[in-house]
Amino acid sequence: AHNAGLYVVCPYEPYDGDEADVNVVADASEYIEELARGIAERMTERGLKSGRILVYGNNTGSCFAAFDAAVEEYYPQFEAVSFNRTPGLSDDGAIDELSDYLLNNRDIKGLYACNELSVPVAVRARSKAIAAFKEIEAAEKASEKGAKNQEADSTPAPGLAANSAEPTPNPALLKQISITAFGCGLSDENLELFTGNDIYGLCIEPYYDAAATATMMLDRLIQGEDTAKKVTVNRPIAYGDTIDKYKAIYNEVKELFNIE
């Protein structure tokens, strides 16, 4: 098309060749800082003065360095860590894997699921870890009560049963599991989790903005106006007061293309 004299605008995917007049791409770095600050700010609003923020997904390496740097710069009282889902695990296996990690690292108070399919896994793992911790607490309280009764009877307390829950190895970990979760990507499931307050913020892929910007760039080219070779659109983070805008666009696109 370009060789035939037509103007070519390439939206969304990065392109460095000569066949496009303009390449419209999504921001790939600045949003990470905004995201890290959003999670840390919410943790601060909860009254937390320390704790860790977990970046979780299939490939956390794509964003963790920038995320970690932002946390260190703006909220040094918190620490960022990463955990990659083991390749080949089913969703149930991934939920179990992450649940065990959260159970044994209860100082994690913020979480960013960095790819769309990791969001429901993270939410369910958090719920499972909370339930498991409550069971451990109940077992410990029952054990303490039994020990007190036996002391009153001057009877030596028996050792722990072989199948007793293992205690969390780090004694400095906090006494509850309470994690502010942020996700990535619009989907029916993620929107349902957002509506149910299971996730606090959602990083949006700006397909609509990229398409709209590409159309405007094409119009400028046709009008003979100068344009930049590469144009970057913001990758927004939706919260409770802004999600309706993106939900409306999402539903409109589904209806337009007859997507179930």
Written account of the structure:
The chain has 260 residues and is of the alpha/beta class. Helices cover 43% and strands 17% of the residues. It has seven helices and nine strands; from the N terminus they run ββαβαβαβαβαβαββα. The strands form two sheets. The protein has a six-stranded mixed sheet, with helices on both faces. The protein has a three-stranded parallel sheet with strand order 1-2-8, covered by helices on one side. The protein is elongated, with a radius of gyration of 24 Å. Mean pLDDT is 88; it is low at 154-173.
In short:
The chain is of the alpha/beta class and 260 residues long. It has seven helices and nine strands; from the N terminus they run E-E-H-E-H-E-H-E-H-E-H-E-H-E-E-H.
Provide the residue-averaged pLDDT: 88
Q: Helices and strands: which structural class?
A: alpha/beta
- Strand proportion, as a percent range, falls in 15-25%
Oligomer: single chain
Largest sheet: 6 strands, mixed
Principal-axes shape call: elongated
End-to-end C-alpha gap: 33 Å
In what order do the strands lie side by side in the largest sheet? 4-3-5-6-7-9
Number of helices: 7
Helix percentage range:
40-55%
Unreliable spans are 154-173
Radius of gyration over C-alpha positions, nearest whole angstrom: 24 Å
Tally of DSSP β-strands: 9
